[in-house]
Backbone:
């Protein structure tokens, strides 16, 4: 019933802690112009634009897509805004794809962005909540008990998080767009970084970045006429569950498991660890890599950390995770999910440059948000579904 | 395209300064909508929510809304930082992909818990306009002045819109302002932001609503007379007031063309016009003749404007007109941004 859809253009900004050289509109345009150039089309060829970003309070603009319409030359076109917490970059790409799959538009541009230097994300995530319980802990304070829960139940040795962090920071050195380029980390040095939210160390946390990602999506008819490499979408999935209730499994949330199960079913995947060539996974705190390996079905329960320890998730391993350097090296919140989705496309399009995984044909993009409760995933391939 | 219809609606009666949380606002309307349609939560394939963090004074304010749905076992769900009418659009897209047959769309707006005029001003260009704090009402007043000077509207025609809306609201249980007023009486009132008087501006209230969408046979099973969506489209204009002809709404006109408003007669039109002169501009942009089309029989946003829920309320009202048999073809409309910047237009028909 649904039409086939392919990503034909990927563009992202050079991410860093403060892009003082550009306005928010300029930041967004940098990604958009690169995506359009990559797709070799102009903005006039775009039928509709789907924009996502995390809370408007991070920059202090309510519904910024309204103001950005001018910078995007969108007058007379549909502009649609998505906001689903930290998973928003992934959700936005999925909503954009659905506009194509539903047969409504032939060419859709989708954008995720955040200019965190214009505000204070830590403050914006910790404001006193009217009529509700304040958390006042920031994301690290919120997630550290969950990480501790994972370590306790899996028996993972304490250096696993640091291994993930050093891997991602090393991978990021091969990615010219990544925020952090820190080539000199060793496991020993990383173990000495300060404990921020026990058991989460400084190196195991993501930076705060300015950045944007844009993708150009086309329906089958147009993608077939397009001569460049393509990332065909084999499946998309989203699942959500409440933040808190008695007995909720927070280390491996049911919504994440269901999201992955749904994606594997749609894409015909029966053995994800074997059939998937590379994963761009949403890992804002290093310990989430082994946790999500289990949650998504790449590893048995309590065994995800062994894949990390055995080096299987390194670029040379059997299941490379975050060759781009991941969220641990670049985190413009509203864009981070779409960067995962876009990097997955770059891998199957053969456009990942130095961090290319040779022969990658099937790649997964993954994003999560809220209190590990909103999940978005897609599976892309160089082959048509 | 799949045939998709609205099969049920629920709206919360408007209140001023309610102390309820967003979850408490939403929960009863979701329950009411599902009960009216006669389905369980487990039969809903997709949920979509519209709301605005800045109105709640809290980032990620929508996260708590999944508690109102009772999202366990986990559900397929999304959220738009916009009016619930845009959430309805996303749900319509989702159903078109064939991934689900039944969707619930809901929205909430606690418009009175903060200075809504200043909050909506934060939509403006953050570098050159918002720091001047022009005020959302004042930007709309600027548009009204341009329209008056151009002879596109008159103050009397604006007052007639207000008088008709307040009188019609007497029959609407969810409306807040209502009553009989002569046009001369309204024109004798003072300006609040010249040339706008208080009754020219949408009334900020707290509200919530929910709409159930269903495809094909599911729709026929769930409603006696589904409100079939025959066309739906949204468009945007540049926000820069100096770069637009403020005496018309280009994006509303283009959206109406794509939605097919002009293909046949329109019995009822529910237009989200937060200012009286904007109803007049929208009637023109959509090609509606007030002698042939009943405009805003609910009273519209002038009698109850729960921001972020007021657009979805127009969909609920238009669908109810079709359910009741009072209309065979209805238009629902939503706008957002200063001076009718972004517009969504939908045509619904009974069978």
Residues:
């Amino acid at each position: 019933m649904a039409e086939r859809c392919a990503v034909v253009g990927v563009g992202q900004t050079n991410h860093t802690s403060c892009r003082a050289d550009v306005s928010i509109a300029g930041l967004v345009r940098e990604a958009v112009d690169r995506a359009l150039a990559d797709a070799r089309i102009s903005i006039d060829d775009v039928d509709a634009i789907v924009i996502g970003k995390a809370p408007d309070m991070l920059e202090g603009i309510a519904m910024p897509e309204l103001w950005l319409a001018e910078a995007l030359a969108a007058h007379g076109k549909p502009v649609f805004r998505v906001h689903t917490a930290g998973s928003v970059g992934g959700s936005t790409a999925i909503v954009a794809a659905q506009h194509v799959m539903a047969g409504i538009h032939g060419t859709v541009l989708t954008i995720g962005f955040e200019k965190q230097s214009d505000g204070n994300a830590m403050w914006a995530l910790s404001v006193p909540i009217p009529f509700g319980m304040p958390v006042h802990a920031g994301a690290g304070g919120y997630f550290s008990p969950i990480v501790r829960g994972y370590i306790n139940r899996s028996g993972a040795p304490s250096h696993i998080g640091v291994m993930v962090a050093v891997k991602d920071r090393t991978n990021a050195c091969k990615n010219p767009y990544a925020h952090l380029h820190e080539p000199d980390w060793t496991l020993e040095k990383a173990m000495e970084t300060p404990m921020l939210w026990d058991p989460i160390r400084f190196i195991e946390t993501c930076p705060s970045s300015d950045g944007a990602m844009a993708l150009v999506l086309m329906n089958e008819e147009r993608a077939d006429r397009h001569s460049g490499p393509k990332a065909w979408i084999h499946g998309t999935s989203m699942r959500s569950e409440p933040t808190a209730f008695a007995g909720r499994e927070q280390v491996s949330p049911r919504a994440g498991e269901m999201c992955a199960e749904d994606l594997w079913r749609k894409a015909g995947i029966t053995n994800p660890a074997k059939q998937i060539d590379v994963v761009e996974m949403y890992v804002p705190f290093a310990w989430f890599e082994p946790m999500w390996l289990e949650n998504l079905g790449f590893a048995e329960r309590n065994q995800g950390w062994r894949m990390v320890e055995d080096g299987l998730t390194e670029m040379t391993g059997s299941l490379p995770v975050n060759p781009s350097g991941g969220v641990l090296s670049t985190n413009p919140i509203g864009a981070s999910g779409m960067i995962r989705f876009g990097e997955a496309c770059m891998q199957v399009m053969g456009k990942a440059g130095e961090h290319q995984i040779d022969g990658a044909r099937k790649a997964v993009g993954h994003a999560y948000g809220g209190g590990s409760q909103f999940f978005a995933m897609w599976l892309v391939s160089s082959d048509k579904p | 395209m799949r045939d998709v219809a609205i099969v049920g609606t629920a709206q919360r009666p408007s209140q001023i300064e309610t102390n309820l949380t967003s979850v408490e606002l939403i929960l009863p309307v979701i329950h009411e909508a599902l009960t009216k349609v006669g389905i369980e939560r487990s039969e809903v394939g997709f949920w979509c929510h519209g709301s605005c963090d800045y109105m709640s004074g809290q980032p990620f304010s929508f996260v708590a809304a999944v508690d109102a749905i009772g999202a366990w076992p986990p559900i397929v769900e999304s959220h738009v930082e916009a009016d619930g009418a845009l959430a309805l659009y996303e749900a319509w897209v989702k159903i078109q992909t064939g991934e689900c047959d039944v969707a619930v769309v809901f929205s909430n707006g606690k418009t009175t818990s903060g200075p809504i005029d200043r909050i909506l001003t934060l939509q403006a260009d953050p570098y050159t306009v918002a720091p001047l704090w022009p005020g959302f009402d004042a930007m709309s007043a600027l548009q009204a002045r341009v329209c008056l000077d151009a002879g596109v509207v008159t103050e009397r025609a604006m007052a007639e819109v207000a008088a008709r809306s307040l009188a019609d609201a007497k029959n609407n249980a969810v409306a807040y302002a209502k009553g009989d007023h002569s046009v001369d009486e309204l024109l004798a009132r003072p300006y609040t932001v010249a040339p706008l008087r208080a009754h020219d501006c949408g009334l900020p209230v707290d509200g919530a609503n929910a709409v159930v969408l269903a495809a094909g046979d599911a729709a026929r099973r769930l409603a006696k007379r589904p409100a079939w969506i025959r066309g739906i489209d949204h468009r945007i204009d540049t926000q820069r007031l100096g770069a637009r002809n403020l005496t018309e709404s280009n994006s509303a006109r283009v959206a109406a063309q794509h939605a097919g408003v002009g293909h046949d007669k329109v019995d009822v039109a529910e237009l989200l016009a937060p200012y009286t002169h904007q109803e007049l501009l929208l009637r023109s942009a959509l090609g509606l003749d007030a002698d042939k089309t009943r405009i805003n029989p609910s009273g519209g946003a002038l009698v109850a404007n729960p921001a972020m829920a007021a657009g979805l309320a127009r969909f609920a009202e238009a669908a109810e007109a079709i359910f009741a048999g009072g209309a065979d073809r209805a238009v629902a409309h939503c706008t957002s941004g200063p001076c009718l910047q972004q517009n969504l237009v939908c045509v619904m028909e009974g069978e």
